[in-house]
Each structure stands twice: as C-alpha cells, then as structure tokens.
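FAQ: What does the model actually see?

It sees only this:
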Amino acid sequence: MSDAEHPIVELLRRDKRYRRGAYQFVFDALSFAQDKLGMGVPVPGMEDEDDDEAQRHVTGQQLCEAMRIYAHQEYGYLAKQVLNHWGIRTTGDFGEIVFNLIEVGLMRKTAEDRREDFDDVFDFDEGFQRSFQITAADSGED
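And it is asked to produce this:
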C-alpha cells in the first residue's frame, strides 16, 4: 500500500476538520489509556491480530479522560492550544475522530459504542487550563 492509499490519507482528504496529528494523538492516547492507566476490559471475540489476545475496550468517557491526562503529560500548559491546532476543540471532536478511524477499519467498536458517548465529557477550558496548576516544585523554587 502506498502512502497515498493509506486510510489516514483518505480521511485527511475526506474530512478536512482534523490534521494528521489529531489521528496520531488518538492512537497514542488509546495506548496510554490501556498500557499506562490500565483502562479497558477484554472483549471476547475481538482478538488482537498480532497475539490472539482479546482487545481491551475503553469507553468513550474513559478515552476522553485518558486523552486529557495524556495531553497534559505531553504538552503541559499548551495542551489545549496543540489540540486546537489539530482541529480538536471539544470532546465531541474526539468522538468524530474515533468514529472516522472506525469507518476506515483502523479502530473497532462494540455494539454499545456511540459517537455521542464523547459529547460534553469535559469542558476544554476547565479540563486543560483551569485545572493545570504550577506548584513550587515545578517552578524550581524551594
């Protein structure tokens, strides 16, 4: 498969709201949720193609929270600005991206998953800026 035929390239052509970084961020945040935060439960019948283990399902709300934490970890106080640059302005955008990825076969969902599960999970101003606090240890002051 050439780069031009990759499903992400097709998504970028079809849906101009989000940049490539937004899709990579969602993949990375899902791995962070499962591997670092221990989120998700095994889903029978959804085996990983590489090792035959059942894939772990993370709900829309769990994934939104993992994305908030991951963005803070990766981008600190600039998290909201970085996500905005990629076209992500609300948690509903996370859902749009996830379901775009499902549509092209790069993610899977259960029968209960809905795009609306991502709507209004948290406010970006509250979740990314007001909750970010600089402590004395962060500033290097004793």
